[in-house]
Every structure is written in structure tokens, then in C-alpha cells.
Amino acid sequence: MKISYEDFRKINIRVGTVLSVKNNEKARQLALVLEVDFGNKIGIKTSSAKITHYYNSDNLVGEQIIAVCNFPTKNIAGVISEVLILGAIETDGKVVLLHPSQKVENGLEVY
Questions:
Q1: HSE-up of 89 (CA within 13 Å, CB side)?
Q2: Is 37 helix (H, G, I), strand (E, B) or coil?
Q3: Which among 6, 32, 62, 68 could bridge 84 via Cys, Cβ 3.0 to 4.6 Å?
Q4: What's the CA gap between 56 and 107, in Å, rounded?
């Protein structure tokens, strides 16, 4: 299905820096809870993500990620997830996160 450029512009995709990472203890499948700083305009948001194959607090805190910031909040195993962190899904289901190739300002839009 094709969408128009105007449809794409409705998706608020932003860059943020991971501030903290912890396990989502209530999730049925291993998942991480991330707090991400999207700058002054959007602020700090929380997300629960099944990204445990490659990621943990040691290699995520301080890293920049890309996320959709205008979905409705969703309760995921007791965590109010406010953003959808974007990644490429490998054939075995492992997620590789998308990120800028160099450090940029938190909150910048992605087109």
C-alpha cells in the first residue's frame, strides 16, 4: 500500500538519548523499559521494547535511538509505553535499533 507524503508527515519520528534501562519484570517475553530524552519540546518518555538479544543497560545508556512519538500510550505488562522505538527485525526476530550515524540534538525530526 502506498501512502502520500502528507500521510508520512503525520508520523512524528524523533531522535532521543537513552537515559536509563531496566528489565520489564512483568512482561511474558524478555523486554526492556527505556527512559529516553527527546529534548525540551517532547521531554522524557518511557518505552517497553523486546530488544534484549543485542541490548542491555551497559550498551544502551547514553546512546541515541529513533522513535515514533505520536502513537497513543499503551500499557505493556504494567509499563505505560509512550513511544515506539524503531529497529530492523532480522529473520530470527532479533531487533537491531535504528540510530543516527553521528550524535545530534535530542528531539530532531527524522524524515
A1: 6
A2: strand
A3: 68
A4: 23
Contact 40, 28 (CB under 8 A): no
pTM surpassing 0.85? yes
For residues 5-18, b (16+ Cβ closer than 10 Å) or e, as one string? eeeeeeeebbbbbb
Strand 64-68 to 84-85 pairing: antiparallel
Cell 529497529 locates to 87
Q: Which of 7, 11, 8, 10 is nearest to 83 (CA)?
A: 11
